[in-house]
């Protein structure tokens, strides 16, 4: 049985955070009907203007709150929350292209709700998954790279027994655990640090689960972890 564990080192920095998970089993993530996912992303892009009402990009609340969060731990220079990267591309007139159904679905949810979303292939995990501070010697091969780029000591990361899975909390994912057309079982998550947006957070989780179930089949299960109610969960195995 693999578990997802959020360690005290994380909660000490972000006591009010919520991590929403959608565990997907037996899905079909093969690429078919690309037009469906192109439309999903295009419609989501149209909704992003509501998060960019302020002229100064970094001052918009959905971006500013994560800029503040990233100052609480050591990060690689220039590292930004995934939602900032998505919104910046749209603001600059660059469409979010399709990758594979799962990634397209969670990117569309991220854009629609202004929340960081991510996903990994469960079948690539080695041991338990932890959201914690890095030791600094974890192996990490970033998407698209050929050289190891270990996290800094004290950096917030997702990791398993093999190495880091996502650096700087939600900045950059590992090639080893990425979602592919062959993914059958997936770990998806949405992260919240702005307590005032709890309702939107839960709506985003439900819509994410519903879209996966509708388009990719299989079974989905939603669970929310926070400091007071739940610090770990069984993924499956």
From TrEMBL:
Listed InterPro entries: B3/B4_tRNA-bd, Phe-tRNA_synthase-like_B3/B4
SMART domains the UniProt entry points to: B3_4 (SM00873)
A GO molecular function held by the record: phenylalanine-tRNA ligase activity
Domain B3/B4 tRNA-binding: 64-217
Listed Pfam families: B3_4
Protein name: B3/B4 tRNA-binding domain-containing protein
Organism: Brevibacillus fluminis
